């Protein structure tokens, strides 16, 4: 699995450098993955590309949405996969503090990456660290009132942006897609 820093870098390159140059008019029923699969089927005609197409579409949809959400979060002083996700995890757990490893697991970043984020958030007055009462090797992280305010404000903006991104996708299909994606994530081991 690629680390989030690489994913964010690749996403920014994809969106900022390659997509704006893509000025070809496509059939409204055809997407980039259809074109890539057609090219691959010429190179490897005996290969079943159905699973490949699903995975590529999920990745591309995620990257395109992530770029939009990253820009919005940046307007609030965050990046979605860094500071905001840490604060959001703390906000959802509030008033229960979390250990750094629990936070790292929830936001899917490495422990060393978590340390830098916690330092930055603590210096900004958005979190506090306290010694763990039973484990001298660990600390407990809590969100501050300023962190709560900023996280709530950002959360509402992100929800509005997500609604905007899916505006053209009918509600009934959203429900079906939600169920399908939930089942896929469970198969892939994404559990609470």
Structural summary, described in words:
The chain has 192 residues and is mainly α. The protein has 8 helices and 2 strands, in the order ααααααββαα. The chain has helices at 4-18, 32-43, 50-75, 80-93, 100-107, 111-123, 145-165, 171-187, and strands at 127-131, 139-143. It has a two-stranded antiparallel ribbon with strand order 1-2. Helix 1 (4-18) packs across helix 3 (50-75), helix 4 (80-93) crosses helix 5 and helix 4 (80-93) packs across helix 6 (111-123). It is elongated and about 60 Å long. The model is unreliable at 1-6 and 8-25 (pLDDT under 50).
Could you provide a short overview of the structure?
This protein has helices spanning 4-18, 32-43, 50-75, 80-93, 100-107, 111-123, 145-165, 171-187; strands at 127-131, 139-143. It has eight helices and two strands. The model is unreliable at 1-6 and 8-25 (pLDDT under 50).
Which key phrases capture this entry?
single chain; 192 residues; mainly alpha; two-stranded antiparallel ribbon; disordered N terminus
